[in-house]
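Quick illustration, no need to memorize.
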Amino acid sequence: MIDSILLVATRISTFVQQQPLTNASGFFFARDGRLFLVSSRHVLIDEPSRHFPDRIEIELHVDPANLAESRNFSIPLYRGGRSLWRQGEDSAGAIDVAVIEIDRGALPVPTLLRAFGPEHLPGRCDRVEIGGSVLVVGFPLGFHDTLHHMPVVRQAVLASSYGLRFKGEGYFLTDARTHRGTSGAPVVMRVAANDAAHAELPWLLLGVHSARLDVRSRDIELDEALGLNCVWYADILMTLTAG
């Protein structure tokens, strides 16, 4: 028996044709029978660093009886010169979240995965308090259980008021030790065990981890890093997966 949250996250590798570029994190989101891969926008394209992959690969479990069996699944990022992913924007500008739809019919049979849905987004009755404990489920520096192809989990606490856009942007802050490769990881909070609506996946999806937050006034030799991270609110997924 394993926690279902470990089957929601997947490791992402980016490529230009056959040339490997970077590793990152992502997770599955399902809506109206459609399946999406969610990650950070800068995983798929990042102009400042001249990161322009043309495809990604994710790792899928293909044998429910043997978690050591996996297969890499390639997803093109462009068709006919047009990007296949959707990226987020709001009134404050670009949001570092992107989704790309996965053709369920192209997946290996069987494929063992779990996906968040709209029911996993926090509602008015869900209490998400500052200082509360959350988890970041991903692949820091590409590190993971290489035998069972599972992510690792880092603990974090909410460092800003959830629901209040930090500095007017579409993200909140967590206090956690994170690394490259965690970009695109889901940030989650466990719900009560007796919650029937979340029986198979007892977690709330709060946001999508983007990057460590630093301040320009920090002296890199004298001042320690803040250890704070930007996490974009997960409700943007309702916009990106509509239609």
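The CA atoms of residues 186 and 208 lie 5 Å apart.
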